[in-house]
Amino acid sequence: MSTPSERSQIEARLQETSDWLYGDGARADMETLKARQKDLERLVGPIAARKEDASLRPDQIRQLQDALNQTSTFVKMMRETILQAEAAASSASAAAESSSSSSLPDASAPSSEIDPLAELEEPDSTSTSSSPNAAPTPETPLYTHEDLDQLSAVHESISTWLSAKLAEQDKLAPHEDAVLTALDVNAKAAELNNVVMEMVQRKIKLPTAQGKPRKPSSTKSKKTKTKSAKEPAPSDKDASAEKANSKTQAEEKSKAQRTRDEL
Predict the structure, then answer these.
(1) How confident is the model at residue 97 (pLDDT cuts 50, 70, 90)?
(2) What b/e sequence results for 125-140 when a residue is b if at least 16 CB atoms lie within 10 Å of its CB, and e otherwise?
(3) What's the pTM?
């Protein structure tokens, strides 16, 4: 991960710093000690970064390759789904046209066979309500050609990028700075995952929020009951008066009948 010249420079600087630390550096202030530390980190930092990246890179590359393989399978599934949806739609369209043409009257039939009273007959509700030859409505396809093109383009772009970077990285020596870092590979994996997940989540059909059935309002019935309860019922006094009036009329009729009999 380092060149002979880099190692020699680091060894020399370490020896120098060690001698200084046990000499004048023992009485140095904090700022001077921090400056010496940064000088050593400047020499060691690039080597440590190359070593860490080299340890992380293989696993990141393997994960990205697995994601690309899974995306390739997903693309094939999308293509088959689209083809099946198009075939189903074409079949349904053909069935609908066939059903429509078979329901039309035959123009070549002789006019003598047409019953002039047929129009006066009531239509058969059973035959009009449901038709056994009705073509089924094709389902809405889960994915479209635009979805397929978008995912295929992202898959192809990242696959091409990874192949090119791997070829460049293989030409480099371990002590040279990497052209394919673990950070870059991780960023490409996140880009691919975001596109796939966005597409999958966009196609998930969430159940529509259906409110609970509303209970019939009892306000009106309560008002009706209240109103009817407030209406006064016929009193006993009114009933007695009506009965007395009927009795008086009966007595007058009886007197008039006796008077006619006496005459």
Answers:
(1) confident
(2) eeeeeeeeeebeebee
(3) 0.58
C-alpha 250/C-alpha 244 separation (Å) is 10
- Class of residue 60 by CB neighbours under 10 A (exposed 0-12, middle 13-18, buried 19+): buried
pLDDT at 211: 45
CA-CA distance, 91 to 109, in Å (whole number)?
Answer: 30
The stretch 172-183 carries a mean pLDDT of 92
For the ranges 73-82, 112-121, 168-177, which has the lowest average pLDDT?
A: 112-121
Which tokens is 74 given?
A: 């997903």
Cα pseudo-dihedral 146, 152, 158, 163, rounded to 10:
-160
Structural domain boundaries in the chain: 4-98+141-203
Alpha-carbon gap, residue 75 to 151, rounded angstroms: 7
Give the contacts of 40 (CB within 8 A, at least 6 positions apart): 10, 13, 14, 17
